[in-house]
Design brief:
The chain has five helices and no strands. It is mainly α. It starts with a helix and ends with a helix. The chain crosses the membrane at residues 20-47, 68-89. Pfam families: CD225 (PF04505). It is found in: Membrane.
Length: 112
């Protein structure tokens, strides 16, 4: 080991934000749509990888994994919002919440 390598080891970098909270929230909200759920789970994995890469000394890898977790979490949240807008629009097309409940009751009665 050369003397210059010891100087590099003294360099301290702060732990990057791994966006685990964003990943968990996007996974829970992603339960409304399959795509959001999958993206949220992948975001949790990437956030976890960010922490483990930082502990192992791979700062650049930790930053890349954290960035991926952030992007996936935000995309999952966007999918959730789009799904909610579509659901609201569909209910309004049926005539509102009461008409929606009635259509569900009619479908249940027809199935019996």
């Amino acid at each position: 080991m050369e003397f210059n390598e010891f100087e590099k080891m003294d360099e301290f970098r702060d732990k990057p934000n791994n966006y685990m909270a964003l990943s968990i929230v996007s996974t829970v909200l992603g339960l409304c749509s399959c795509i959001g759920l999958i993206l949220g789970v992948i975001a949790i994995v990437m956030a976890s990888q960010s922490s483990s890469k930082f502990r192992n000394g791979d700062y650049e890898g930790a930053v890349k994994a954290a960035k991926s977790a952030k992007i996936l979490g935000v995309v999952a949240l966007i999918v959730f919002v789009l799904h909610m807008i579509y659901s609201w629009y569909s209910i309004q097309q049926l005539g509102g919440w009461n008409a929606y409940i009635e259509s569900i009751k009619e479908a249940i009665d027809a199935a019996q």
